[in-house]
Amino acid sequence: MKTPHQAACIIRRVTEEFGAFSNMSRHPVTHEGVVWPRAEHLFQALRFAPDHDARERIRAQKNPMAAKWLAKTLLSEAVVVPRSPGDLDNMRLVLRLKCDQHAPVRCLLESTKGRLIVEDCTARPNESGLFWGAAWEVNGSVQGQWRGLNWLGRLWTELRGA
């Protein structure tokens, strides 16, 4: 019998089975006629006003981690607060676009029906990690549990239709 940890669809690395659910995966996303290299680029850019030059600077980054770090350095100029209701709405939009524009992502999502989807932040259980994901905690027995809000997994589940 699988433990809850083994039965979950784990988002950890883009090269793993459910890596396509990561904003870092190699799935460009088109939004309002503009192609974004990865979902992470678009998500970070959406924190800034539409006419702010940060959006284009983020889009121009070579990789999603560079886009994320650039956005962090400009956060004082953002109009959407990280981990706020507006941020959740932006993530919801980005995931929907990614799913709509990439059949393999859509098929993978459909294959998870009835299963928990979790962004595993066990290696980085900080405030942001525990907001977007959850950390696996073992409480002294074979049993364990996920701790965290897991908003990324919850939004994928919402998009899937439960």
Q: Could you explain the architecture of this structure?
A:
Helices cover 43% and strands 12% of the residues. By secondary structure, the chain is α+β, with helices and mostly antiparallel strands. The chain has a two-stranded parallel ribbon with strand order 1-4. The protein has a two-stranded antiparallel ribbon with strand order 2-3. It is globular, with a radius of gyration of 16 Å. It starts with a helix and ends with a helix. The model has no long low-confidence stretch (mean pLDDT 94).
By secondary-structure content and strand pairing, the structural class works out as: alpha+beta
Arithmetic mean pLDDT: 94
Report how far apart the termini are. 23 Å
Instruction: List the total number of helices.
Output: 8
Helix content: 40-55%
Strands of the largest sheet, in order across it? 1-4
Rg over C-alpha atoms, rounded to the nearest angstrom: 16 Å
**Regions with little confidence, pLDDT below 50 for 5+ residues:** none
Count the E strands.
6
Shape label? globular
User: Quick one: biggest sheet?
Assistant: 2 strands, parallel
Would you spell out the secondary-structure blueprint of this structure?
Blueprint: H1 4-7, E1 9-11, E2 29-31, E3 34-36, H2 39-45, H3 53-59, H4 64-73, H5 85-101, H6 103-111, E4 117-119, H7 127-132, E5 135-138, E6 144-147, H8 151-160
Parallel strand pairs: 1-4
Antiparallel strand pairs: 2-3, 5-6
